[in-house]
Structure formats: structure tokens, C-alpha cells
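Let's practice the habit of predicting before peeking. Look at the sequence and jot down your guess about where helices and strands might fall. Then scroll down.
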Amino acid sequence: MRVLVTGGAGFVGSNFVHYLRQNYPQYEIVIVDLLTYAGNLENLKNPENRAQKFQKHQDRNHHKAFRFIKADIVDKASLRPIFNEHIDAIINFAAESHVDRSIRYPSLFVKTNIMGTQTLLDLAREFKVGKYIQISTDEVYGSLGADGLFTEETPLAPNSPYAASKASADLLVRAYHETYGLDVNITRCSNNYGPYQFPEKLIPFMLFKALSNHALTVYGDGLNVRDWLHVEDHCRAIDLVLHNGKSGEVYNIGGNNEYTNLQVIRTLLRELKKPESLITHIEDRLGHDRRYAIDASKIRKELGWTPKYQYENGIKQTIKWYLNNEEWLRKKA
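Done guessing? Here is the structure:
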């Protein structure tokens, strides 16, 4: 199988590439990434040997074929030669993903997240790609109150430009399935954590600040709740969708690990033996959703997925990874 992984030098994309290399060494992987600020070739180094030089064309020790191509998913002309070689499956991780940036620069999110998705769908249709998976987010559902969970039937109600762009892309994916019969799936996951996450996101950002003894700025009261999912569990779920997902279906992926932002930050400070006096509250973010929580019963029942990581163990492992790779963290922060 030849798999195209877009956004493969980013956080979740690079983790998925490592996952494929470990579990499906016979697969050919083509990685496309524009290498904007959050994408980095260092993320694709062999995780068992961080000193190993990244090879653009082939990693004979770990994978049959492992190629990287720098390209913008909006640019159809740049992508066409890739599809000329035949692609069996596309997993689209490529996206602008930071809510704060979407508030400042919404047009960037419309371009990459919506127009880029359409370009990939057009090429998938033209070249008769066997499977297209859109990696989406629970943020497309909006905000929950104190009770309830997002299901696949929850109406889309995005509250940020980022979430709106992802919801729009999801609707395009659905439309290409309904109109053209494209074999697609959409996965919507809760907040991921783990290795290689760019430090604009909560956990690596707060880790960097705490290690530097700088103030940890928290939006509002810090009681916004997120459901935390280890990135490896996310990768395992995508694997199941790739090989067994029913065409046209949406699958929610969540860890059942609900914690407030303050609880997460206090965990980091406790593990680093840093004082809570570093926490500083600032004005809340515009349109800040109060709570996300995923009902993942569908993917559990239909595809047999179960998360491997409990938050308590996963967060400690994640902190250890960043401490062992502090140079990587400081270069990105």
C-alpha cells in the first residue's frame, strides 16, 4: 500500500508516520508538508535514535519507502506528480490548527483547511484513490455545558475561525462522498498530547515556561475542560479507520480524560517541582469554548478501538519526553 500523509511533519502527522513505519514496514509512505512554523523535519527522525540523520528518500533500516516532499496542499500542480505514481490512501493531517492564530489570521485557515481539503479531494477523485481520511477535531461541535458528550450526530456549531474552517472541510468531505461516491472517513478527536507537539499548545507551552521560571499565563479562570487523548492512541484509532472504517462514516476519538486547564498545568508544575505561584490569570480568549468531551463508543464497538494510555501515566511519559528533548523544545518555543 502507498499512503500519502499530508501534514506529516507536524505533531500528529509525524507520530502517525512513526506508527506506520513500526507497524507496517511493507507500506510505502509519501509525506507532504509545507514546513511552516509548526512542521519540522526533525520530527521525522528515527525516534529510537534521535541522532540519526533524516533521509528524504529512503530509510532502509526501518521502511521500504519513506519519502518527503515539500508542497502546499492548496497547490494542485505541485501535488499532481505524486498522484501520477498512484496513491492507495490519503490521511489528511495538514491544517492550520491554533485557535489564537485563527482569531488573528482567519484567512490563512480558510485557505489551508478548506481550499487545501478541496484540492486533495479533487485529486483523490481524479486519480481514483481508494481511501481518504480527514483528520478533524471535536471543536467543530462547539461547546458543551457541564453535562453531556459529543456524539457523531451532534450538530456542528463551531465557535472559532479554526473550528469553522475544520467544520467546512468536513462538510466538503461528506459532499464528495455523497456526490461522487468517494470512499471517505472523518475522524474527530479530543485534545492530543505527546511527543513532538509544537509549543504553542498548552502542555509544551506551559512546560517551556515552567522550565524557564516564567509566568504561566492562563486564560480566564482556567476552568475550561478538555478531554485529553495520547497521540499514540489517536494513531491506533486512525489505523483502524484506514483498514476497517465503513465508507462515509464519522468516528469520534476521545480519551475519557476530562481535566480543566488549571488541573493540567498544576500536574506539570508538580512533576517539575515548580511552585504554583508561577500561574498568572489573564483576560479570557475570544469565543473560548467551556467544555469538550467525546463519546467514542462508536469506534469502540464497530472497530474495536480502546485507548492504551490513562492520562496519569501518559502525561508523565510526555513530560519525560520533553525533558529528554529539552533542546528540541527550546528551539521550537
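How did you do? The radius of gyration is 19 Å.
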